[in-house]
Write a sequence for this structure.
């Protein structure tokens, strides 16, 4: 399947936002600066930064599928980071995630979060349900699932071969 990859806020090293196939990928998000010394304070800044980038990509926090990896400078900060994350996520919208201890780009940084979200225009349900992809006019178009042996393909979308 050939789909466009959209990149936003690009520099020579990375894109802050990459959208493809109904998903929005954000680069790692940290606090805006290193003047905040504790993990709680640094983690409190991350949701607003995530919200801003998701908004630019046409998504929002309830559509977060995964806080793919949460990097902590020291696992001693895990409980504090968890408290902030639990307080900031919408009810019933807990994401899949992994937390790891890692050396971050600055010794003063305590936490960094990488996010994957569904675009607002994408819908999907399980087991041969409803699916949408962007149409050329920017509006989603419904696809009819077709079962081909053990594979499922979508009418009107070429398969990867």
């Amino acid at each position: 399947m050939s789909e466009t990859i959209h990149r936003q806020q690009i520099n020579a090293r990375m894109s802050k936002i990459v959208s493809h196939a109904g998903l929005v990928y954000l680069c790692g998000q940290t606090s805006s600066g290193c003047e905040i010394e504790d993990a709680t304070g640094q983690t409190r800044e991350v949701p607003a930064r995530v919200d801003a980038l998701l908004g630019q990509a046409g998504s929002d926090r309830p559509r977060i599928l995964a806080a793919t990896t949460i990097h902590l400078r020291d696992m001693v900060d895990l409980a504090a980071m968890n408290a902030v994350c639990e307080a900031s996520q919408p009810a019933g919208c807990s994401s899949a995630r992994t937390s790891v201890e890692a050396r971050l780009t600055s010794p003063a940084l305590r936490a960094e979060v990488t996010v994957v979200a569904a675009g607002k225009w994408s819908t999907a349900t399980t087991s041969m349900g409803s699916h949408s992809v962007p149409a050329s006019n920017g509006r989603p178009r419904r696809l009819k699932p077709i079962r081909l042996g053990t594979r499922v393909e979508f009418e009107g979308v070429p398969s990867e071969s």
